[in-house]
Amino acid sequence: MIRILNFKDFNSLNESIRIEKIDPSYYSKETVTSLPYSKYIKDNRNSFLKKLVKISEDLGIKPIWLLHTIFNESRFDPKKADKYTGAVGLLSFFPEVLKNLMYVDTGKIISPNDVLQMSNVDQLDLINGFYKNWIESMELKSPINPGDFAALTFYPGIIKKDWKWEFPDYVIQKNSDMFKKFPNPGGKTKKDYYDYINQIFEYDGEYDDNNEKILGQFTGAFVDPSLFRGKKPLEYYKDLILTKEDPALNAQVQAQDAEVTQTNKQVEK
């Protein structure tokens, strides 16, 4: 379990996921038709949707996929903060993940507090940079299919598996509500998961609060791709689950987050 705490090793310039701030002129002329979840977007609604549509186009995905994903993770609340895991923001980034995200123009590592200070529009820069890095790392070609994009959020290891590969029992147990919704009752293969995601993502309406964690209870992709490649996917995913369930370990992670935030303040001075 100690390995999951050693994220300082990934904060160097060459290894960090570089985040670029997108100029508003890049998406300001984007045409946005009626999209679901608008009622959840309390601030900057027009700018947020224009930017989301533009980055979705650049990533090779449909905007509705990203809308469903953000709904699943935060209900579009940019100030969401999980006191237990430390996950923050629209996409519930874990603190250990943020230590690997760095602004290109300043070289500043992003802390959980930084995310909570950002608007919903600014947080889309993080989402764009993170998914772009993962898509390149997993060598996915545009247009991306729904199952692969969801796998980046839920469990990247399945992207390279064949259709008959089956999820391990501990993943099924931790996500039992999701697996029960599969079109194929009792299904647990990659194909079953991709069929389910096609059904979820191609729905052009809104899910409601009764659809809790429709994409899975835990996120497997929200780690630095270089770290993911350095371990067996199953081993890392299991470590991630156990870490989220260990209050003492999470206290250590959050203490490290406070240290990063203080360091950033010193740099800014």
What are the SSEs and their pairings?
Blueprint: E1 17-19, H1 45-59, H2 63-74, H3 95-98, E2 101-103, H4 112-117, H5 120-137, H6 146-154, H7 169-174, H8 176-180, H9 190-201, H10 225-229, H11 233-244, H12 247-268
Parallel strand pairs: 1-2
Strand content: under 5%
Largest sheet: 2 strands, parallel
Task: Kindly report the average pLDDT value.
Answer: 79
State the helical fraction: 40-55%
What shape does the CA trace take? globular
Beta strand count: 2
- The largest beta-sheet arranges its strands as 1-2
Q: Report the end-to-end length measured between terminal Cα atoms.
A: 35 Å
Oligomer: single chain
Explain briefly what this protein structure is.
By secondary structure, the protein is mainly alpha-helical. Helix content is 47%, strand content 2%. It has a two-stranded parallel sheet.
Description:
This protein has 269 residues and is an all-alpha fold. It has one domain. Helices cover 47% and strands 2% of the residues. The chain has twelve helices and two strands. The protein has helices spanning 45-59, 63-74, 95-98, 112-117, 120-137, 146-154, 169-174, 176-180, 190-201, 225-229, 233-244, 247-268, and strands at residues 17-19, 101-103. It has a two-stranded parallel ribbon with strand order 1-2. Helix 1 (45-59) packs parallel to helix 5 and helix 6 crosses helix 9 (190-201). It is globular.
